[in-house]
Amino acid sequence: MIKLPPLFFAPLHVYLTNILEFLITKFSKYIVLSISIFLVFFPEEGYAYIDPGAGSSIFQVVVASLVVGFFVIKTAFGKIKMWLGRVFFRKKQKKD
Amino acid sequence: MPISDSCFSVSGSFRDPSGFLFEKDGLIFRQVNKGYQEQYDCLMNSGLYASLVSAGFLISHVEADVPALNGEIAYKVIKPEIIPFISYPYEWCFSQLKQAALTTLRIQKMALEFGMTLKDSSAYNIQFLNGKPLLIDTLSFEKYRSGAPWGPYRQFCQHFLAPLALMSCVDARMNQLSRNYLDGIPLDLASSLLPVWSRLRPSLFFHLYGHAKFQNHYEDKASQSRSCRLSRLALQALLDNLESVVAGMKGRFRKSHWLRYYSDAHHSQETITAKQELVAEFLRRYSPGFMYDMGSNTGIFSRIASRQNIRVVSFDNDHSVVEENYQTCFKERLFSVLPLVVDITNPSPATGWALEERDSFFERGPVDAVLALAIIHHLVISSGIPLEKIAALFQKICRYALVEFIPKSDSLVQRLLVNREDIFSGYTRGNFEQEFGRYFEIEDSRPLPGSSRIVYFFKRKQR
User: Fold this and answer.
1) What is the pLDDT of residues B5-17, one digit of tens each?
2) Residues of A in Cβ contact (< 8 Å) with B210
3) B50, B166, B209, B378: most buried by Cβ count inside 10 Å?
4) Residue of B214, B224, B242 to mutate for A, most A C-beta atoms under 10 A
5) pLDDT tens digits, residue range B198-226?
6) Above 70 in pLDDT, residue B281?
7) How far is A58 from chain B (nearest CA, A)?
8) Three-class secondary structure assignment of B183-244
């Protein structure tokens, strides 16, 4: 069984805390945005008809705000996976 | 006017104020207008151009020392790499359209890293070169303004997402709708054509249904002007979402009997091998540089040419076999084959403004040679096209042709005649030779062993 030296816990902990903090900051922003989606879907006053793509421009803001949370989590997991991969790969290489 | 003196703008690029294509002495150039100078310099100096070209995402070009067609507004003239055959989205199979969509998104992602963004995402800006999709419009980029929404989102949904969703949820043949709607399939139309269950897919529900509703809702609103803001992170999330939506799509094909055409009982291995040898001999004899494989099925004969680095446009009207052809060429890394969905009895017409924006299928030729194996009997008996018309078309599009004639006694022709009255008295070997003989020298004719079929080597007569 591979035992991680104590040194490895510290950066991981720091790393996870940082991610959590990052997510909360981002989510709080997008929770507000998600609520505003309803306001956009059922607006009191319409946005301007700027050009034929006006609806699309407004709509992409709505869709992007829905998917951004997943994107942030996905990216964070990708980074963790990469970091862990690097740690274990390096360890295995040392063993060899 | 002789071609060496010719200099004229190329149709299909006149909508873009940033520049346009023009032809001079038979070569294609692109004029970059002064209005696009800043963006062009940014593309070239930021490192984006070099990165895109090395990734195979953007057509390469050199700056040319050629007088501009419209000198007053010209900044530079560039000479792009040559695309041997221009194809259009309504001629692509599902996987080709999917790859083109993914390439567009990857280009956008890369552009964002260099502080630029795509200003349009037309499917017509993507072409296949050496089997891979790449962007051919060098002037499609602009500087990214922080907080600006992605301008081509609507175009991406109409040009790529809507046809892909229809091909995935309804039928691969739905791609033919793009032939009518040159600016992509309207989202409200796509929404009404998609089955109800497709609304359960969140991606389609939002990008197509919701998007269409939103477009309709804001169509007649002309009240206040308010700019939308989309953070860079949100834009990255949107692009990532679109990429995973497109990557997860699978084509929906009907079970086609054409996929088993060369493995069924009507074709002995002996006949197929003999036909392959004849194709190889035809290629050795005439050494064509560029050819059509008409009614190519899964492209087994196109691949013989491709192995000799001959460029082949391999077309058939059945989506399933073209898909199979594309997948096989991709796996075998035979990049000189371009499989397309084209019905020879109704090939792509010229479309767009003044019928000049998109060329018809045959206007994009001619080619050196044509392979027409096991297709003439379908044209005559299934589609009712007289031999005289077939020969006349062949002489317009090629110099050499390898044509297989299948007599009425053959079991496959008999199968075609089962439910038809035999009104094809003119479909005889004698008439076939006579009609093709009007335009072509019959250089050789070989019977195929194990069958009553004959393969002809034709060379066009001097006009």
Assistant:
1) 466 777 677 788 8
2) 59, 62-63
3) B166
4) B214
5) 999 998 999 999 999 888 877 766 544 35
6) yes
7) 6
8) CCCCHHHHHHHCCHHHHHCHHHHHHHHHHHHHHHHHHCCCCCCCCCCCCHHHHHHHHHHHHH
Q: B311 near B293, Cβ under 8 Å? A: no
Q: How many CA atoms within 13 Å lie on the side-chain side of B432?
A: 21
Residue B309 region, left (φ>0) first, then alpha (ψ -120 to 50), else beta?
left
Name the pTM for this structure.
0.85
Residue of B206, B219, B220 lying closest to A63 (CB–CB): B206
Distance CA B342, CA B317 (A): 5
Q: Do B228 and A58 touch (CB under 8 A)?
A: yes
Omega prior to B80 cis, within 30 of 0: no
Question: First and final CA of chain B: distance in angstroms?
Answer: 20
What's the rounded Cα separation, in Å, for the pair B388 and B356? 29
B228 forms bridges with which residues in the sheet?
A: none
ipTM: 0.73
The rounded distance, in Å, linking the Cα atoms of A84 and A90 is 10
β-pairing verdict for B141-143 and B116-118: antiparallel
Longest CA–CA span in chain B (Å) reads 77
Q: Say if CB A80 and CB B246 are below 8 A apart.
A: no
